[in-house]
Amino acid sequence: MNKKTTEIEILNGAIVKYGKQLGIPTPYNECVAAFIQVIQNHYSDMF
């Protein structure tokens, strides 16, 4: 891992946002976005 921030919020976050606006569940995108966000928030603790 190179500890760089990802575009997860722009990509998966947009899908989640639009899904909520349209009433379409996006559980996998929510999970992936949350998982990657947790990893990014703990980069300094990992290595």
Please specify the SSE layout and strand pairing.
Elements: H1 8-22, H2 27-41, H3 43-46
Helix pairs in contact: 1-2
Short structural summary:
It holds the Pfam family ApbA_C. The protein is an all-alpha fold.
Q: How would you characterize this protein structure?
A:
Residues 2-40 form the Ketopantoate reductase C-terminal domain. InterPro entries: 6-PGluconate_DH-like_C_sf, 6PGD_dom2, KPA_reductase. It comes from Coprococcus catus. With 47 residues, the protein is an all-alpha fold. The chain has one domain (8-46). It is built from three helices and no strands. It has helices at residues 8-22, 27-41, 43-46.
Which key terms come to mind for this protein?
47 residues, mainly alpha
Structural class: mainly alpha
* Residue-averaged pLDDT: 87
Shape: elongated
In total, the number of strands is 0
